[in-house]
Structures are given as C-alpha cells and as structure tokens.
Amino acid sequence: MKGSLLLSNAKLVTGQTVQILIDGHGIISEFELAGSRNISFNEETAIIDCTDMYVSSGWIDMHVHAFSDFSPYGDEIDDIGVKQGVTTIVDAGSCGADRIGELEAKGKAAQTNLLAFLNISKIGLSRIDELSSMDWLDEQLVRNSLQQYASFIVGLKARMSKSVVGANGLKPLYAARAMSQAFDMPLMVHIGSGPPAVADIISLLERKDIVTHYLNGKSNNLFDLNGKPLRTLMEAIKRGVCLDVGHGSASFCFRTAEAAKLHGIPLGTISTDIYRKNRLDGPVYSLANVLSKFLYLGYSLQEIIAAVTARAADWLGKPELGRIQIGDRANLTLFSVENEQITLRDSEGEERLAERSIITRGAVVNDNFIEC
C-alpha cells in the first residue's frame, strides 16, 4: 500500500458506524466508532466514503477449487478470491501429493490468501474418480507433502460419493481416517450419491472434521423424507463435527436448507465449492450470491457474516483473520445489502425470488485495496 487509507462511515454488522485508518504498511492504526473522536490523517491519505456499506473482517471461503490447470474443477485464484471480495480461500482437495507444490506456488503469486486441503489421492482432481483405485493412496507421499507444505495445508480431503470411490466403498475413508490420526490432521469429507451410505460415512467423523455438502438434496443426505435430521447428524454435531455448505453445482437445496433451519441445525461455515463453470453459469456465481440465499432463508446478517469470518477463522486456527483490531494487518471485506429483487437458484434448479441481496464492494488484503 503506497500510502495510508481511511475507510470512512462504514457500518459493522452490529449497526455501529466506524472509521478505520490503515497505514502505508497495511496495518490498522486506528479503529474508532464514528463520532467518538477525530481520526488523525494527512492530506496524502486516500479516503473511501463507505456510506451505505458494511465492513467485516475479510471473508473466508472454506471450499473452492482454485487449481486452474484442472477441468472441470478449477479456476483462477483471484477470480474467485479478491475480485469477489473474498480475502482468503481454501482449496478443497483439488491437488494430491503429485501437484500440491504447484498449487502452493500459484497461491504465492496471487493477491488472495490461499490455503488448501490435501486430497488423499495423489492424483487429486486430475480425474473425477480419484479414489476408485487404492493404488493412488500413498501414506508416505501424504506425509512428505504435509512436512514440506506445513503452513499451507490445513487438512485432508476425501470425496466419498459413488462416482468417486467406485467399488471401493468406505475403504478410502478408512485410509483417510488412519492418515488423519497418524498426522494429527482433520478431515474434510464430501458427501454425495451413495453408496457408501451417508450414515456410515458420518459415523467415522470426529471432532473438528468437516462434512461438506450437508445441505444437498440427494436421496443419500442427512435428512429423512419429512425433513427431519438423521440421528447420525445430531450425534456428529455433539461430537464436534463441523458443517460446511459447499454449495457447488449439485450440493445445495433450498428445501433441505429450510429443513435444517426449522430443526435448529447450527449454521457452520458457508462456502461455495466454486469453480469456473458454476461461477460463470451458476448456480453459485459468487460467495456473495450464496450468502444472499441464507439472507433469504431468514438468517440474520450477523449469523451469515460470522459463518465466513470468525467461525471459519477459528477453525483454521487463525483468529486474526476473523477480527478487526488495531495493530493487525488489514484484512477486510466491504459489502452492501441491496433492497432489490433478485432470483436465486439452488443446485436442483429451484428458484426463489428474494427481496434483498448481498453485494461485495471491495477488499483490503496483502497491502492492497481491490474494488469489486
């Protein structure tokens, strides 16, 4: 950041209006409620009038596919990151041991903060049945990757649906569980069409593991035909298993989400499972679009933003990413809530007409201000 930056008259999700001064080194030097006292700045300070905008700590998308070399599950890091107001993205197992180093290098060249789950299959998403051969699971290669990229990898990823595991059933998940225990790393587990049965998958998850796609509308999901949560889901929540949305092209259903809210299922992390096709053609488009769906569902703005800030940051063990505090490096998202009708579409093709939507306006990250 070439000079200091003042964000003037921005609102917190609590409704309080604040002024935030960021110095030329990208550090928050002053953070004051509007009117509490005058913030000191000089004539070289760039001032952004944030009237009618909210500010939060930088949004975190816990499930993306950011390895642009892969198709269909790939995209450019900044196209699904800072250009959409998202300051930190977590790649959800695009790469296994074979190419995780390439993904890390791409992250270093981007403006967006990038972290990753390591696919337990060494070939990653170079093909979409990466767990159909147990020969592609190599514990020593996983160990080597975790040692070499310790600050980059946040957990292990296993995609447990029929099209991925083939005839192997639960075998890849048993292998993932063993590696998780051996290396003290949590699992993110994708659920989808069975077999394996979702109850058998969830029973193997432990505290701090993540089940992603928990609001999908497939028959092999976590709710019965009447929308009541399965006992296996309730038991997993009690064990400390985390719930992640992972919207994607096939994994978010309005009816399932409504059932979850009706039965008091706690909101975990809201993520997109975004990649090039569902960003350009929908139904995902952006993290803001996914958050708008939860606004439509009746969650408060505070609940929604916590799901992509403090809650995600706490899971990552990086609480500084989920706060706004003097002395911290600026990591912020600016957004507005627009009172205009918008048509929202889920992964089943069902559309809902919403009266409000969340729109990103900018981000401050890695000493840069990016306007959306």
Describe the overall structure.
The protein is of the alpha/beta class. The chain has 2 domains: about 80 residues, Urease, subunit C, domain 1, CATH 2.30.40; about 260 residues, Metal-dependent hydrolases (TIM Barrel, Alpha-Beta Barrel), CATH 3.20.20.140. Helices cover about 25% and strands about 25% of the residues. The protein has 11 helices and 17 strands. Strands 6-7-8-9-10-11-12 form a 7-stranded parallel beta sheet, sandwiched between helices. It has a 4-stranded mixed beta sheet with strand order 3-2-1-4, with no helix packed on it. A 4-stranded antiparallel beta sheet has the order 5-13-16-17, with helices on one face. It is globular, with a radius of gyration of 21 Å. The two termini are about 15 Å apart. The model has no long low-confidence stretch (mean pLDDT about 95).
Strand order, sheet with most strands: 6-7-8-9-10-11-12
The biggest beta sheet is recorded as: 7 strands, parallel
Give the low-confidence spans. Answer: none
- Per CATH, what is the topology of the largest domain? TIM Barrel
Number of helices: 11
Q: How many whole angstroms does the radius of gyration measure?
A: 21 Å
- Give the overall pLDDT as a whole number: 96
Q: Give the % helix.
A: 10-25%
CATH superfamily of the largest domain: Metal-dependent hydrolases
Structural class computed from helices and strand pairing:
alpha/beta
